């Protein structure tokens, strides 16, 4: 389930080479999760059929909006939809028929092929937080994110054992012009890590830049024949598909790159307060979005998404880790499987301002529901704070450590001869103990998951070492990981071509912070 990656090369041989090998930074990176446990299903067949029927009614009778997008409207007309102004009424069964050409699984290639991920089926791919304009750490507190912060998060993701993906906008670097920051972010993912990454969606031209940069990194022919990016396309719920996101979706679909089609649901604000009503809207929106991707290019890789949270009816603030969000996440997973589509949802969601007990409770609930609901691609798997406004360095490593729990739980119960442990039970017998038996000696290194962060020391030792809480331990871990970071090797000609592309694109237009 894991592979070792050793970094660092030295010239010369003999003792110097051996010393370098012993002191080189070494870390494991886990293969994507392959579930050996059942999915939890909260809805029966009758309930699923009602929701599917209601979603088709929404598409046909109420319709969805594609504003400022005459090309999309024409595609829908040609496909047989009834277009009235910017409102698209999709005949019953048409969207589902179009969705049938989307693949049920796909491979996203990394520049290090050992880190390729399989999205779909029984698999779960974990990616870091996405989108916050602020960052927080114990040294600087809460502040606007910079490109230096972004680079640190990419390095942490690269070195995190249980993360399979480098992600996308792990924080929004506000010190770089809006029209140019996508270039620096992509360059960082491509050069500071060799894990898979996400493309830009904030403007169709930036999606095209992402495709071109991937052409330099992987080769243009390889990009057209393989998926090397996954990108997040949010639906402007309720039932509106804005032209910017749809323009980016079109670019990626036409170039065989994957997109997550994801409603942004805050129950009671952008969707009904009930679970069944919200699931109806989620399904209607994702059916329309996935269908449109297939109108752009049949067979384009797609992930059905559902970002779901409830709302505090007193303050209006989003709430996370709630039972209602869990019901919707489980139900949406069932609907995605009935469509034979990969599924994105869940993450390290919390509304807390600090990486405290509230953050831990809400995050644990959110991560576990993601595993059990059958999620295939989990964005925001680590680092999320304050309802998605903040990327936290300490919480990033806390969450990344806890992702190991998901890996181990997903293995299921081993029922082979070693798992049954009858030899151990026979050896120890009544009244003995298992600490020294042969079975324990053979299994103790891998028998139990162990945190690399949490403190299990006796009270006296903990007190002597400074009585540090988890946030303090996480801060120290961030410092150590960044100090140990070594950049993965890259062909110098490829690096130079990426540098030149970024420099040229930046020089072609004036800075804009709007």
TrEMBL record:
Family of the protein in this entry: Belongs to the trimethylamine methyltransferase family.
Keywords of this entry: Methyltransferase, Transferase
InterPro entries listed in its UniProt record: MttB-like_sf, MTTB_MeTrfase
Record bears the keyword Metal-binding: no
EC number(s) reported in the record: 2.1.1.-
Broad enzyme group: transferase
Any one GO MF annotation of this record: methyltransferase activity
Name of the molecule in the record: Methyltransferase
GO-annotated biological processes: methanogenesis; methylation
Keyword presence, Transferase: yes
Positions of region (Disordered): 1-21
One family name in Pfam for this protein: MTTB
